[in-house]
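I am still learning, so can you show me any protein sequence you like together with the matching structure tokens, please?
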Amino acid sequence: MSGAERPRPRLFGVVLAGGQSRRYGSPKARARLAGLTLLERALAILHAAGLETGVIANRADDLPAGPLSAAVSVRPDLTPGAGPLGGLHAALVWARERGDARVFLLGCDLPLVPPALVTRLAAGFDAARPTVPASPGPLGIEPLCACYPVSLAAAAEEWLSAGRFGMGEFVRAHAPVVVAPEQFASITGSEHAFLNVNTPADRDRAARLLGARGGPDQARA
């Protein structure tokens, strides 16, 4: 079989919806933005990128009811209270059980990620390292919009067992493939892809940006 014909490693799209939403004041996964909840929007982004999806969340009562979210399987963290790294670990174990080679992890509070960016990051998959986009945020990368090989499940478990919960630190420790902004600047909407909805004001800003884009909402396509 030639390289062009070789099937790509299976990719499982997982929405991380397990945060405590302290700054938002109510469960962010149920917050509505342009007619969709943040959870529905994140799932729709991954679906538009052609991925099968699942949700990591610790409190089912915090999730919205609806046809899109109701059709998706939900699992809790295997190590409760460990933050995003705990969610990544649960996602990697889940993907390994499914027979997938990798996980695309998307935080439900990143509602402006274009599906084309998910596809671009997945194309840079490395079998041993995370593939993450550069970000203007404090970490310099966005680990909650990134691709991870299931081979990192054991390392994530070791970190959690040792009480090490830093998501950015974990990614940096595993020599990530960092996709520079110029490599995805041509994707429509990528300039606001990493707007993080932590407060109602952030949600309102995201709504204004969606309205300014015009045209069809990609998350509804």
The radius of gyration is 16 Å. The chain has one domain: 11-212. The CA atoms of residues 135 and 142 lie 6 Å apart.
